[in-house]
C-alpha cells in the first residue's frame, strides 16, 4: 500500500496518510481495547492506591462471575436467549429472503426491500419504544387479538422474555435477510426446477438444494444476529422485565453504577470470548469455514 | 404404457404477450419428437408447460391421455434435461443420479444399484464418488442424462442439451441419445435451434416460429416439401427468388420473376394467380447442363469453394445471389470466378410458397 501511495503522491504524502491511518487504528481501536484488557486483570482501587503495592495483576475479576450465581445464570440465559433470537430471526427471514430472491418479480422485490429498509432509518430506541407501545398490556396488539376472539384476556407480553425476543427479532432481521437473500439470489433457478422435476416436494427442495447453497449466507446472518443479540443493550432495557435481564445490563451496571471498570471490563471480555468460542463451535458442527463467510 | 403427449389446443400468454399461439399436437408414445426454431420462438415455454413449471393459459396438456391440469411439476411423469444441465454442484455424481430415487424413498442399496447401472449406460462406470465439478462438459452431459433417466420417466424433455458441447462431441452425443431412446422406448421431446440435430435424430420435427407451429413432419418431408416460406428457408439451405404468380396448372405454377423471366415450380393450393410468392430451389438441385423439363437461369460465378466431396459456388444473377452445390465430379477448369454459366433446375425440384401460410 505504501508503495502504491508513494508512486502516486510521492513519499511525503504517503508517509502522512499511512501515519494518520496508523494513529487512527492504534489510538482509537487498539489502545482502548488494550487498556480494557489491562483494566480487567487489575483490582478496583482508590486513585491513591493505583500503582501502589496492591495494584497487582490477577484473575480475580474473571473469577467473580463464576462465584456469583445470579450473574452466571444471567450470563448463560443471555447466550441461550441470543441463540433463540437467532433461530427465530432465521425462521422469519428465510422465507422472506427466498421470496425476494426467487419468487417475486424484480419490481416487487425492489419494493419489498425498500419497505423493509425504511423503518430502519428510524433510531433503534424509537423503534423499540414503538414495540413497547404495541406490546403493552392495554396496547393495540392485545386489543386486536381480543377483538378477533383469539384470546379472552390480554397477554402480558412484556413481563417475560417474549417482548425482548420479539423486539430483537425485529431489530436484527435485516442482518439476517440480506446475507441469505444474496446467497439464494446466486442460486441458478434451474437447480430448483431440476429438484422439482425429479419429484422433490418443496421441503426437500429447500433442504437438499437451496439451503446447502445458501449455507454461507445463513451462517453470516446467524453470526451477525447472534453477536448483536448477545451484545444488545437497548432492546432488553426497554422491552425487558426484571426477570429477563441481559448480561450487557450487568456489565453496564459494573461500569456506571458500581463504578468498577475493572470488573466490568472482565465481564465484557468473558462475554466476547464465550460468544466467539460458541460461534466457532457451531461453525464446526455445521461445517462452515471462515472462507465461506468471507465470500 | 401410454406415454403419448397431447398438447390440446394450448395457448400460453405472459400478460399481454402471447408466447405460444393456439397449438394442437399429438406426440406418440415412444416417439423422438423435436421442436425446431430460432431462439425466443417459445420452445422452452412448451417444455415448461409439459413439465408443469407453467400452466397453459388455455387448453390442456395430456400425458398418456390424462389431463395434467393442476398436477404439480414434482408429480408429473416427465423428466427434464436442462439447457445448462443444472446438476447439483454440492452433491457427488452418484448423489445427483440418485436424487430422484431418494425423493421416492428408495432404499440406499437399491439406489446404489440403480446409479451403477445408469453410470454404465452412459459409459461412466466408477465415477459415482466424483464431484460434478471434476467432470468434463461431455461427462456432465451424460450425468444429466443418467439423472433424468433414473426416475424412469415416461417422457424425457431435452432443452438444447448439446448446445454447450463442441462439434465432435455433439455429433457423438446425438448418436448416443438416439441409442438411449431406442433402448429405453421413452418418449423424447427434444428442443433445438440446430436443424441438423433435429433432422438426424427425430422421428418427427415441429418447426416453430414466433410462438406458432409452422409444420410438423418427418425430416425427409420437411426437407423436400416445406409448407411455409419460413420452413423452406430455416430447414436446410435454400435459394429464394421473389416474384408474382402468373398461372396455376395441375400443381405447377408459373411465376414472373422480373429480370429472371418466367420460372416454374411445384405449388400448394393456397397460392393464387396474382399473389406475391417465393420460388425456392435448394443448392444441390442446380445442374450445369440442361436436360428435358429443366429451366435455366443465366448467372456469373462470384466464388468457387472446393470442399472435397463437393464444391460450392456463389453466383450472381440479374436479380439475386444464388448458392449452388455440385458433386466434385462436375468440377472443371472453366468454373472460375467471373465465368458465365447457366444454372438449370428440374421444375419439380423447385417449390413456390406464398407469404400466406399453408396448413
Ligand atoms: N416467464 C416469462 N414471462 C414473460 N415472458 C416470457 C417468460 N418466459 C418466456 N417468455 C418469453 O416468451 C418467448 C419465448 O421464450 P422461450 O420459450 O424461452 O424461447 P426459446 O426457448 O425458444 O428460446 C420469449 O420472447 C420470452 O421472452
Ligand atoms: Mg430456450
From TrEMBL, chain A:
Matching InterPro entries: MetI-like (IPR000515), MetI-like_sf (IPR035906)
Biological processes per GO annotation: transmembrane transport
Domain ABC transmembrane type-1: 75-282
GO CC terms: plasma membrane
Membrane topology: Multi-pass membrane protein
Coarse class of the protein's main subcellular location: membrane
Transmembrane domains' residue ranges: 12-35, 79-101, 162-181, 264-286
Key words of the record: Cell membrane, Membrane, Transmembrane, Transmembrane helix, Transport
Coiled coil stretches, renumbered: none
Stored Pfam families: BPD_transp_1
Keyword Mitochondrion recorded: no
Entry keyword Transmembrane: yes
Localisation per UniProt entry: Cell membrane
Family to which this protein belongs: Belongs to the binding-protein-dependent transport system permease family. CysTW subfamily.
Protein name as catalogued: Spermidine/putrescine transport system permease protein PotB
UniProtKB/TrEMBL annotation, chain B:
Transport found in the keyword field: yes
EC number: 3.6.3.31
GO cellular component, one term: ATP-binding cassette (ABC) transporter complex
GO biological process: quaternary ammonium group transport
Signal sequence interval, chain numbering: none
GO molecular function: ATP binding; ATP hydrolysis activity; transmembrane transporter activity
Keyword Transport carried by entry: yes
Recorded coiled-coil stretches: none
SMART domains linked to this entry: AAA
InterPro entries xref list: AAA+_ATPase (IPR003593), ABC_SmlMolc_Importer (IPR050093), ABC_transporter-like_ATP-bd (IPR003439), ABC_transporter-like_CS (IPR017871), Mo/tungstate-bd_C_term_dom (IPR008995), P-loop_NTPase (IPR027417), Transp-assoc_OB_typ2 (IPR013611)
Transmembrane segments: none
Record-annotated ABC transporter domain positions: 5-235
Keyword annotations: ATP-binding, Hydrolase, Nucleotide-binding, Transport
Descriptive protein name: Spermidine/putrescine import ATP-binding protein PotA
Organism: Marinomonas spartinae
Amino acid at each position: 500500500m505504501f508503495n502504491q501511495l508513494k508512486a502516486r503522491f510521492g513519499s511525503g504524502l504517503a508517509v502522512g496518510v499511512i501515519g494518520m491511518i496508523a494513529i487512527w487504528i492504534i489510538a482509537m481501536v487498539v489502545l482502548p481495547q488494550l487498556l480494557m484488557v489491562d483494566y480487567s486483570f487489575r483490582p478496583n482501587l482508590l486513585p491513591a492506591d493505583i500503582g501502589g503495592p496492591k495494584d497487582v495483576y490477577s484473575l480475580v475479576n474473571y473469577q467473580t462471575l463464576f462465584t456469583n450465581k445470579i450473574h452466571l445464570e444471567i450470563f448463560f440465559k443471555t447466550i441461550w436467549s441470543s441463540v433463540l433470537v437467532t433461530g427465530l430471526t432465521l425462521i422469519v427471514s428465510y422465507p422472506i429472503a427466498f421470496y425476494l430472491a426467487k419468487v417475486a418479480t424484480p419490481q416487487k422485490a425492489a419494493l419489498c426491500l425498500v419497505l423493509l429498509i425504511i423503518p430502519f432509518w428510524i433510531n433503534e430506541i424509537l423503534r423499540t419504544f414503538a414495540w413497547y407501545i404495541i406490546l403493552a398490556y392495554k396496547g393495540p396488539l392485545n386489543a386486536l387479538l381480543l377483538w378477533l376472539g383469539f384470546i379472552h384476556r390480554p397477554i402480558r407480553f412484556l413481563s417475560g422474555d417474549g417482548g425482548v425476543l420479539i423486539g430483537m427479532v425485529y431489530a436484527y432481521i435485516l442482518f439476517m435477510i440480506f446475507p441469505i437473500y444474496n446467497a439464494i439470489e446466486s442460486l441458478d433457478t434451474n437447480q430448483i426446477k431440476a429438484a422439482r422435476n425429479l419429484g422433490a416436494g418443496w421441503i426437500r427442495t429447500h433442504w437438499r438444494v437451496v439451503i446447502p447453497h445458501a449455507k454461507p449466507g445463513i451462517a453470516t446472518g446467524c453470526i451477525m444476529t447472534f453477536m448483536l443479540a448477545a451484545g444488545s443493550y437497548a432492546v432488553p432495557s426497554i422491552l425487558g422485565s426484571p426477570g429477563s435481564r441481559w448480561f450487557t445490563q450487568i456489565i453496564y451496571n459494573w461500569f456506571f453504577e458500581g463504578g468498577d471498570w475493572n470488573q466490568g471490563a472482565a465481564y465484557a471480555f468473558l462475554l466476547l470470548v464465550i460468544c466467539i468460542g460458541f460461534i466457532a463451535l457451531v461453525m464446526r458442527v455445521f461445517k462452515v469455514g471462515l472462507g465461506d463467510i468471507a465470500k | 404404457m401410454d406415454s403419448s403427449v397431447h398438447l390440446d389446443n394450448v395457448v400460453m400468454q405472459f400478460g399481454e404477450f402471447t408466447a405460444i399461439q393456439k397449438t394442437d399436437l399429438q406426440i406418440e408414445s415412444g416417439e423422438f419428437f423435436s421442436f425446431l426454431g430460432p431462439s425466443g420462438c417459445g420452445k422452452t415455454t412448451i417444455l415448461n408447460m409439459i413439465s408443469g413449471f407453467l400452466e397453459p393459459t388455455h387448453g390442456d396438456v395430456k400425458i398418456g391421455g390424462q389431463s395434467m391440469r393442476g398436477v404439480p411439476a414434482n408429480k408429473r411423469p416427465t423428466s427434464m434435461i436442462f439447457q445448462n444441465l443444472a446438476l447439483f454442484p454440492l452433491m457427488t455424481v452418484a448423489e445427483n443420479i440418485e436424487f430422484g430415487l431418494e425423493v421416492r424413498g428408495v432404499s440406499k442399496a437399491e439406489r446404489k444399484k440403480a446409479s451403477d447401472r445408469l453410470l454404465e449406460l452412459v459409459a461412466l462406470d466408477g465415477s459415482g464418488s466424483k464431484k460434478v465439478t471434476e467432470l468434463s462438459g461431455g461427462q456432465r452431459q451424460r450425468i444429466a442424462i443418467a439423472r433424468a433417466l433414473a426416475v424412469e420417466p415416461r417422457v424425457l424433455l431435452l432443452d438444447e442439451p448439446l448446445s454447450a458441447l463442441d462439434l465432435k462431441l455433439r455429433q457423438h452425443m446425438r448418436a448416443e441419445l438416439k441409442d438411449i431412446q431406442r433402448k429405453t422406448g421413452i418418449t423424447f421431446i427434444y428442443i433445438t435451434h440446430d436443424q441438423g440435430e433435429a433432422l438426424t435424430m427425430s422421428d418427427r420435427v415441429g418447426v416453430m416460429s414466433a410462438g406458432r407451429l409452422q409444420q410438423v413432419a418427418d425430416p425427409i418431408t420437411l426437407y423436400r416439401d416445406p409448407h411455409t416460406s419460413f420452413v423452406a428457408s430455416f430447414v436446410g439451405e435454400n435459394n429464394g427468388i421473389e416474384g408474382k404468380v402468373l398461372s396455376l396448372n395441375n400443381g405447377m405454377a408459373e411465376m414472373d420473376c422480373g429480370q429472371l423471366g418466367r420460372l416454374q415450380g411445384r405449388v400448394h393450393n393456397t397460392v393464387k394467380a396474382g399473389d406475391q410468392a417465393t420460388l425456392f430451389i435448394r443448392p444441390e438441385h442446380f445442374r450445369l447442363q440442361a436436360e428435358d423439363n429443366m429451366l435455366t437461369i443465366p448467372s456469373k460465378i462470384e466464388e468457387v469453394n472446393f470442399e472435397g466431396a463437393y464444391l460450392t459456388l456463389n453466383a450472381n444473377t440479374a436479380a439475386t445471389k444464388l448458392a449452388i452445390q455440385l458433386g466434385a465430379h462436375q468440377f472443371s477448369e472453366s468454373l472460375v470466378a467471373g465465368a458465365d454459366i447457366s444454372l438449370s433446375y428440374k421444375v419439380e425440384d423447385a417449390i413456390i410458397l406464398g407469404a400466406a401460410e399453408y396448413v
